[in-house]
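I'm stuck. Please check this protein.
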Amino acid sequence: MATETNDLGPLPKRITGGCLCGKITYEIKFPENHNFAESSGTCQCTQCRKSTSSLFFMYHRVPYSSLTWTSPSLSTHLKNYYCSEGRARGFCGDCGTFLYWRREAGPNISVAIGTVDPLYLFGEGHEATNGEVPKEGFGKALAYGGGGHEWVKNEIKGVTDDLKIVGAGKDGRGERVLTE
């Protein structure tokens, strides 16, 4: 059952997600002490822009041990691309969906928010969950953006430098070095 918090709304105990073609799927079971506010963030580095085809990469970081790949033929479809040594960008080799960024020597994985199933992200189909998922889903808890902004030196003046979710405005902005 979801629990309420003041700022983030209901918090999930678990979520599922996967790629566009459905050949790669996962489940995340959140640790009891998971800090949802500090685990979501964005990155505006050129590598993230290119691999996501978006102005910024929105992620939710979890311990890798919390993620279970549920695809029967994962090794056939999951591919990794290495822009930087020891840092994997995971994607589906069939449909091309970007799934995660991961420092292979670290304990965490940054899962692409867009790969979370609609039920958990915005509540599509919540009626069938017997209260496990609220009407609005868990999008705010998963995509709050309060965990930092990995790289803002590449902000686009007049476009991404003004978006609250990527650290603009009175909330401030700043480059954060990724620590795992």
